[in-house]
Structure formats: C-alpha cells, structure tokens
Specification:
heterodimer, A: mainly alpha, 9 helices
Chain lengths: 249, 55
C-alpha cells in the first residue's frame, strides 16, 4: 500500500526533527533580547515558511493540471493545500503563544505579518467548501486548480507585505542592520527547517498514497458491483437456445 | 522587549512544542483511522471477489 521510500523518508524526518529540537535546547545560544522564549522561533518560522512554500507548490501543480488535464496533478495540488493548512494551524497557534509571552496578548491586529498570514490561511480554508460544493469531478478539479493558482498569487504578497511593513513589532531576524543571527542559531534553524520540509513531504506522500488507494478501492468496488449485476442479469435472464441449424451453418 | 525569566518562558516554550506534537498526533490518529477503514473495505472486497470466483 505504501509507496517506495516512504518508510525511509519517515525515518529521516523523525531523525532530522529530533536532531533539530536537540540543537534548539542544547546547542543554540539564548537570545540576548528575548531569552528562552526565542526557542519558539525554531518551530514557528520553519512551519510558516514550509506552509507558504506548500501553497506555492499547490499552485504549480494546479497549473500543470490545467495544462495536461492529468488528475494526479489535481490530487497533488489538493494534498499540498491540505498539509499546508494543517501547518498553518500550527503556525497560528505557536505564533499566538509566542505573542502572549512577548507582547502580553495573543494577537495583534496592527501587525501586518500576522494579519496577512491569517488572510492567506483563511483564503485556503475556503478551498474545501468550494471544491466539495461541485459534484462533477472534472469541473471540481478545474475550479479547484483555478482557485489554487489565484490563491497562490497571494503567497508572495504575504512575503512582500512582511518586508514592506511599517510596523516592526514582529521580529525580523534573518536580515537586520545589526547583522542577523549568529552561526549557531543559523545551523539550528536550518536543521529545523530541513526537518519541517521532510515532515511536509512525508505527510504529503502518505496522504497521496492513502488517496490513491481509496480511489483504487472505489474502482474495484464499481468493477465488482458491475460484475455482480451482470452475473445476476445473466442468471435471471431467460436462456435463449441456439437452434441446431444455426450452429451447424 | 524585556526577556521573560526562564521559569515563566519555559511554560510557553513547552506549550508551543506540545501543541505541535499534539497536532501531529491528531493527524496521525485520523490517518490511522482512515487506513483501518481502507483495510476493512479491502478485506470486504477480497471476500466478495473470492465468493464470485467460487460461484
């Protein structure tokens, strides 16, 4: 049932995440400004980046689906959005916990980084009702692809909004005038980012495998149902005897 | 932004990491339930196919 290499990928994910979290607590230095609470950064930021990359991947697969008509690209686009939305939930919750500890409140509506991510997240939440409101499979896939491409365009806007934001309440750690993070923090961040990317990939492949198995089962069921209907019809239909002359000629 | 003392910051950091693990476990539990359903359906179909072959 599982695709080749999924077990290896899952093991690599667990190993990388465990290594990443070990680096967070035993290797990365304490942040001079934020102290211990900065440890959330190694969880929150990789989750956010991987979720947003996942939304862009969904748009790429949607474009491929519209160009080729191959349903595998539609399935990949759906799964990319699905996993990224789950990651998005984790981003919002971990971000809110960090905000509570740092700012004293769970959310700040004045902060463009938070609001723009929330808009992107809510936009993708509407993907499910849109998709399942359409019964016809082909139309459903086409409309979902158009949605994924349109919504995908909002993701770079999210990054741009963050960079252009006037408000500097949300920390900027990668490129600051002071020189950004020290090397030990960078290494820890990169290992955590690799772990989150592998986790996203593992979950996506696992979901794709489950989805394709479900589709194969449905096809098998339809084939068996058709087969049993044919057999029932044959059993109940009056048998027509072929005249001996016809068979001889 | 003054840094929180370790004992106070610790519960927030633990909370964030626990939320992440909990979400992951919920997802894995949902997927496990889905896989169990697929396996059950597969068994049913295999039985039906065997019955069909026997007839």
């Amino acid at each position: 049932m599982y695709p080749k290499g999924l077990r290896t990928l899952a093991l690599a994910t667990v190993a990388t995440l465990v290594a990443g979290f070990a680096l967070v607590f035993y290797y990365a230095p304490l942040d001079a400004d934020q102290g211990f609470i900065q440890k959330i950064f190694y969880l929150h930021v990789p989750l956010a980046i991987v979720a947003l990359i996942g939304f862009i991947l969904a748009a790429v697969h949607a474009i491929r689906h519209l160009r080729t008509g191959d349903s595998i690209h539609d399935a990949r686009s759906y799964i990319a959005i699905h996993i990224s939305v789950i990651f998005g939930v984790a981003v919002l919750v971990t971000g809110a916990i960090w905000a509570r500890a740092s700012w004293g409140h769970w959310w700040s509506w004045e902060e463009p980084t938070l609001v723009s991510f929330l808009i992107v997240f809510l936009l993708y939440c509407t993907y499910y009702p849109l998709r399942y409101a359409i019964e016809d499979r082909d139309r459903q896939a086409r409309y979902a692809s158009v949605f994924a491409i349109t919504a995908g365009a909002f993701v770079p806007l999210n990054f741009i909004a963050v960079r252009m934001a006037e408000s500097l309440v949300h920390p900027r750690v990668f490129a600051t005038a002071e020189g950004g993070m020290p090397a030990k923090m960078w290494i820890t961040f990169l290992v955590c980012f690799a772990g989150m990317s592998l986790l996203w990939l593992t979950l996506a492949r696992f979901e794709l495998s489950a989805k394709s198995t479900s589709a194969s089962l449905a096809r098998l069921r339809r084939a068996l149902d058709g087969d049993s209907v044919t057999r029932t019809e044959t059993a109940t239909r009056p048998t027509r005897t072929v005249p001996a002359r016809a068979t001889q000629s | 932004m003054p840094a929180l003392p370790l004992d106070e910051a610790g519960k927030y950091v633990a909370g964030a990491y626990i939320v992440f693990v909990a979400l992951l476990l919920v997802y894995v539990a949902i997927m496990a339930a889905k896989l169990q359903r697929i396996e059950r359906e597969l068994r049913e179909l295999a039985e039906r196919a065997e019955e069909g072959t026997a007839e």
